[in-house]
Design a protein that fits this description.
RibuloseP-bd_barrel; globular; alpha/beta; 7 helices; PRAI_dom; 219 residues; amino-acid biosynthesis; binds the ligand O=C(O)c1ccccc1NCC(=O)[C@H](O)[C@H](O)COP(=O)(O)O; phosphoribosylanthranilate isomerase activity; 8-stranded parallel barrel; two-stranded antiparallel ribbon; N-(5'-phosphoribosyl)anthranilate isomerase; 10 strands
Length: 219
């Protein structure tokens, strides 16, 4: 089965090119004002055009209202929406129906009980994304570069479509894939040289590490 790979928080043509050349299935754009990865919808729209159909362009939002979503959808034209806040199942259904776009719902995980919170979203969200809980004091619901215990995902239905996220990087992705064999993975700060600054070399190293883990060859 092919592994979905999302590189999130992209802001430049060079790093988008590195993500696509490496084999990213998804590229993510962050619309959360406090994030160092924040991008204006119009800028994301221009970058998204350069992506063409080579990867799915994902708009990441946090409890966004209709006006914010209208602007993002009309200016960026995403292929998918990632709802990374406390959006209810009803809100996910409403957004999905109104924009006619697939929705990935993010959940923060630190214990087994957190995984049961996805149940009301079955049949509503198209995919799930499991991220770590933000560290105390962080203003960001995602992009914190912290991991959770990946073994928690071993109890999930093998047919569940999700991305493993949170603190992944070229050094630990092999272990993450081995431990929970996820259908998809997502990385942001693990391929950065500073908060919000993606690094082409780190993006390439991440893909090499994924390939090495999947083929058993050295990275
Ligand atoms: O990345 C952000 O700054 C961000 C801000 C607000 C909501 C979500 C955000 N990121 C969402 C993602 O999908 C990240 O890739 C995910 O949280 C993993 O980040 P990291 O642990 O840095 O790899």
């Amino acid at each position: 089965m092919s592994l979905s790979i999302k590189i999130c928080g992209l802001k430049t043509p060079e790093t988008i090119a590195a993500a696509i050349e490496g084999g990213a299935s998804h590229v993510g754009f962050i619309f959360f004002a406090k994030s160092p990865r924040y991008i204006e919808p119009g800028d994301a729209g221009r970058l998204r055009q350069a992506v063409g159909g080579r990867a799915q362009a994902v708009a990441v939002v946090v409890d966004a209202n209709d006006a914010v979503l209208d602007t993002i959808v009309s200016e960026m034209k995403p292929d998918m929406l990632q709802l990374h806040g406390k959006e209810s199942p009803a809100r996910v259904a409403e957004v999905k129906q109104f924009y006619g776009l697939p929705v990935m719902k993010a959940f923060s995980v630190s214990e087994a009980a957190d995984l049961r919170k996805i149940e009301p979203y079955f049949g509503v969200a198209d995919r799930f994304l499991f991220d770590a809980k933000p560290p105390k004091g962080s203003e960001l619901p995602g992009g914190n570069g912290v991991s959770f215990d990946w073994r928690l995902l071993q109890s999930l239905d093998p047919k569940l479509d999700y991305l493993l996220s949170g603190g992944l990087n070229a050094e630990n992705i092999g272990e993450a894939l081995r431990l929970c064999n996820p259908p998809g993975i997502d990385v942001s700060s693990g391929v950065e040289s500073a908060p919000g600054v993606k690094d082409v070399g780190k993006i390439r190293a991440f893909f090499r590490a994924v390939e090495a883990a999947r083929t058993g060859r050295a990275a």
